[in-house]
Design a protein that fits this description.
The complex is a heterodimer of chains A (166) and B (254). Chain A has helices at residues 4-15, 18-34, 45-59, 61-69, 90-93, 99-108, 111-122, 127-134, 138-165. Chain A is an all-alpha fold and 166 residues long. In chain B, helix 1 (3-14) packs parallel to helix 3 (34-54) and helix 2 packs across helix 3. Classes of the chains: A mainly alpha (166), B alpha+beta (254).
């Protein structure tokens, strides 16, 4: 089965729930098989599959709830402010024991940041592939990624400081 | 360019999304700038950390894998059914085609046999000492002669003004039925005209054929008024055609 593990991992990251992730993957394969005629050969198959999964999720109850709580992306087109911090937490995060911190932070990220990070870092998709999957322009992918990374750094830093205090 | 601007490009650089020109400039800058190099390194480590934390974080269990495999395998089952239908349809088509071929070849065989029989009759008649039983050039003599000898009546054409001469007639037995065998002559060529009832074992091929060449003879045959006409001889094709036309015209007057 193509992309089975990856799709399941992505589905679980989106839904944060095993049963829902299973339903999503199953639905994705069913839709892909049914609608295979709508797949245009030569276009990105992986992006097509991820798009089906993501759309399925967005129309699910959890997905609708997740998108409702997402703030309007009014900052999408604005300049990306890069926070410069001499004490970057990234080197600390390399530590295996801190993996949990990063996982928690990722789970807390708003959906639109989480998914773009997963597609970029885990699936190692190109910006164009991500754009195809999410149905947004490639330029939006770049700015959203910057914000997502900054948000993840911020969250991870908070969590690290929290654990150090506690 | 200030380091801040270089650093703004670092993510795209590490994601492999910078143009080759921009990448070369950034490479050059990184070789000379320890601060930006440290930043780039931190970002690489961050990327790796995310991949390590999130990639393969959730693995599907074996039960679910089996379930999905089964649901996908259900599609080929449909394909297999479809395959069976296709195979059945193909087989039916092959059988049908085979039946048609057999029918056509049987028809051809019957036709061949029929012409062979007529050719034999034609040659045997002309080679015999008494080729005809009624010797007359007069159609009004020949036609009544057949009365009571064959189970049908026919009309013969008036030959005046043509090159054809009626030599006479005899009863022919073709395909287990009796018919009229007339012999015409044109410029020393004898032409047999067989008039046979349709049905029985006389094969019915065409309603009207063009002159064909069979066993070195020219043949034209057609069906008219419930009778099968076969004009047969070694005369030229156009002569066979002319005689056929005369016979057709006479039969049409009935």
């Amino acid at each position: 089965m193509p992309l089975f593990e990856q799709l399941y991992n992505f589905a679980h990251w989106l839904s944060k729930n095993r049963e829902e992730a299973e339903d999503l993957v199953q639905e994705t394969y069913a839709k892909a098989l049914r609608g295979f005629s709508s797949y245009q050969p030569g276009t990105n198959f992986r992006a097509w599959m991820y798009r089906i999964l993501r759309n399925t999720f967005l129309t699910s109850r959890t997905g609708l709830k997740a998108t409702m709580t997402v703030p309007l992306e009014t900052d999408e087109e604005g300049p990306v402010v890069v926070l410069t911090d001499p004490q970057t937490p990234e080197s600390i995060l390399l530590d295996r024991s801190n993996q949990q911190v990063l996982q928690d932070a990722l789970e807390e990220l708003p959906l639109h940041y989480r998914e773009v990070l997963l597609l970029c870092e885990v699936e190692e998709m190109s910006y164009q592939e991500i754009a195809d999957t999410l149905g947004v322009p490639a330029g939006t992918v770049m700015s959203r990624l910057s914000r997502a990374r900054a948000a993840l750094r911020g969250l991870a830093r908070e969590k690290l400081q929290g654990t150090q205090k506690g | 360019m200030a380091c801040q601007e270089w650093q703004n490009q670092l993510d795209s650089y590490l994601d492999g999304e910078l143009s080759s020109d921009a990448m070369r400039s950034l490479d050059a800058h990184l070789r000379t700038c320890p601060a930006c190099t440290a930043d780039a390194l931190a970002r690489v480590q961050f990327k790796r950390s995310i991949k390590a934390a999130a990639g393969s974080r959730f693995a599907p269990n074996a039960e679910f894998r089996a379930k999905i495999q089964k649901s996908i395998a259900a599609k080929p089952r449909w394909n297999r059914n479809f395959g069976w239908k296709l195979a059945t349809a193909s087989l039916a088509l092959i059988l049908f085609a085979g039946a048609v071929t057999a029918y056509v070849s049987r028809q051809n065989l019957e036709r061949q046999q029929f012409y062979t029989e007529l050719a034999d009759l034609h040659v045997a008649t002309l080679g015999s000492a008494n080729p005809v039983d009624v010797i007359s050039t007069d159609r009004h003599t020949v036609k009544p002669w057949f009365q009571g000898k064959i189970p049908f009546s026919f009309y013969l054409p008036e030959l005046q003004g043509t090159d054809f001469t009626l030599l006479g007639g005899r009863v022919a037995y073709v395909g287990q039925s009796s018919g009229a065998h007339l012999i015409y002559q044109i410029r020393k060529h004898e032409i047999s005209v067989f008039i046979l009832p349709v049905g029985g074992s006389v094969p019915l091929f065409t309603d009207d054929s063009n002159v064909e060449r069979r066993q070195t003879f020219n043949v034209q045959d057609w069906t008219q008024g419930g009778l099968r006409y076969v004009v047969f001889g070694d005369a030229a094709a156009e002569d066979i055609q002319k005689l056929s036309a005369l016979l057709k015209a006479a039969a049409a007057q009935q």
